[in-house]
Structure prediction request, 508 residues.
Amino acid sequence: MAIEEMILLNMTFDRHDLDQVLFTLKDSKYFYPQPASKIVNNVKGVHALQEDNAYTKLLDRLIQVASDMKLDLNKDLAPDKTLNLDQTDQYLSDLEAQIKNIKDVQDQLITEKDENEKTLEILTRLTLSDVDLDHLLNCQYVKARFGRFHRQNLDKIKYYEGRPFIFNKLGEDRQYVYCCYIVTNSLLLEVDNIFKALGFEEIVIPSFVHGKVNDAKKELEEEVHAMTEYILRMDQKMTILRETHKVDLLKLYSTGLFLQRIESFKVFVVDFQSKCAIYGFIPKRMIEEFKDMLKHINGMEYQELPADILDHQQVVAPTVVHNAKIVRPFEMLSKVKQSDKIDTTIAIAVLYYAVFIIFLGDLGVGAILALLGLLMRKKKMGNLFLSLGVAALLGGLIYGDVFYTISLYPAIALPLSTVYKLVDGIILLIVGTFTIGAFKKMYLQDSTMEKVLSMKGICGLIIVYALLVYFGCVYEAHINLPIMPFAIVIVACLVFVLAKSILKKKAE
Prediction:
C-alpha cells in the first residue's frame, strides 16, 4: 500500500474497433491515456486523430431549444451509442421552426399588449372624461402628444415657460410623470425637440380607440384582456410542444453528452490509417484486469513499456497511490506530489487515529466530527472528518467523557488532567506530522550529507526532540534535569550543520 508502480501500455487495434475501444476506456478508473500529439512527435505519416465538434454543436442547439421551451435538461436517460446526425439535424430544424412560430406570435402580442397598457395608463390619468379622442387626435391645426418622462426631469419644464405649447401633467408614479402636450403644427418640430431633450417617450393611441375617454378605456381593457388570453394560449401551445418532445429531447441530450465525451477521447488516439493505437499509464497490478476488460476486442495487441521511456517527450507517468479504505481519507494530509517516491499516508493515519483515540477521545466531539463528515460526505474533507469522528468516539467510549467535562460512567483514565491531555494530543499531532515530513524529505534527498548534517535531516530532528524532551520533563513531568547535556547535544548538531554548509560552499 504505497505509490503504485506504473508502466506505459501501448494498445494497437483495427480502426473499425475504435468506437468499441473508446466505449470501454471511458469506464476505466486506472488507465491514464496520453495525448497522441506527444507520442507521434512529428513522425511522418502518423498523426493524432482529429476530434469532430459535431456533438458540441448539437448540444449547443439542444440547450437553446430547451431554453426556449423552458425544459430542464438532464442526463438521467440511458444514452444510445450511435446517432444519425442528418436525421437529428432535420428533427431539430422542424422543432426550431415550430418554436419560432410560437415565439414570434407571442413576442408580437406581448409588444402590442405593452403598448396598449401604456395607453391605458395615459387614459386612466385623464381627468377630462368628456374629451373626445377622435376630435383631439384629428385636429387639423394642432397636434396632441401623450407620453411619459422620468420624474427627475419634471422641474426642467419651468425653463420652457412662455413657449407656445400647452403642457398638462396627467399624473405620476415612482418612476415616471405621465403627461400630454398640445402644440400648433407649425411649431411641432421645435416643441418635439424640447420634450425629446427631457427624455419624453411618446405613447401612441391605437387606431381602434375612439370616442370619449371612458369608452376608449373600455375598448383598451377588452383588447388587453383578449391579448392576455391569447398569450396564455401560446404558453399552453409551447407546453404541449415541450411535453410532446420531452423524452426525445432528453434522450438526445444524454446521447449527445455521451458521444461528445467519447469524441473527446480521440485526442489520445494515434492514427495509423488502417490501425489505431492508444498509449497510457496503468498500475502494474491492474494490467491483467484491464486486458480482461478489453478481451471482446479481437486482434488487440499490447506492448508493456517502462514508465520513463518517453520522458524526453514530456510523457510522464502520474503519481498514483493505493491505500486501504481506512487510511484513504488521510491522503489529503500526506499530499503525495508528482516527484515523490514515498507515500506517508499510512504513517499519518496511524498518528491521527492514535492521538484522537488516546488523547482527544470524547463522545461529544466525536459525534460532531462524524456529523460534519456525513454532511460533507461528497467532499474529501468529509471522509476525513468522519474518520476522525469515529476515532474520537472510540476514545470517548473508553473514557466515558462528553465535551471533556461530563463523565457518563467510571472508565479508564490517563494520569493527566484534561487540559494536559488535550495539549499533549495537539503537540503530538504537530511533532508527529513534522517528524513524518522530515523523514520523507530525508528519503528524497540524494546526498547522504544532506540527510544527516542539515536542519531538514537527522541533526534537525535531534535538536527538535532534545528541546521537546527537556521542556516535557521540566514543565509537564516536573523532573529536574540538568540543561547542560541537552545544550551540548544541540550545540554539537548546530556545529555539524554549520560545518556542512561551509564545506558545501567550498565545494561549489
User: Anything to note?
Assistant: The two ends are 40 Å apart (CA to CA).
